[in-house]
Amino acid sequence: MTDAELFQELLRCIAVDPMFDKQAFDRAIKANRAAMKISGLLGIEGGQDVRWPYPIDRKRLREGGGPAVLAQEFLAGYRAARESYRPGE
């Protein structure tokens, strides 16, 4: 599989998590395939999105367990970031 295909599979693994329905996923998750980055929305402050960034390690995506492992790491980190997020701090 190419990096682009692995990245797409990573997004699919995240999208099927019970935390998201289609609308929630589209609103909360931004993906930049060229830069291999994903971010999750924490909140909106001053009309600007506040996001939790998750850069993708290409080597780990290819060799370190693949998309499913990275998806679980992203989801765990995103949940923790959402729980600890305090607007305005």
Could you please describe the fold and organization of this structure?
The protein is an alpha+beta fold. The protein has one domain. The protein has a 3-stranded antiparallel sheet with strand order 1-2-3. The longest helix has 19 residues. The relative contact order is 0.19.
Number of domains: 1
Give the low-pLDDT segments: none
State the secondary-structure class.
alpha+beta
* Largest sheet entry: 3 strands, antiparallel
Task: Write a brief caption for the model.
By secondary structure, the chain is an alpha+beta fold. It is 51% helix and 24% strand. The model has no long low-confidence stretch (mean pLDDT 92).
What is the secondary structure topology, with strand pairs?
Elements: H1 3-15, H2 22-28, E1 29-32, E2 37-45, E3 48-55, H3 58-63, H4 66-84
List keywords for this structure.
3 strands, alpha+beta, three-stranded antiparallel sheet, elongated, about 90 residues
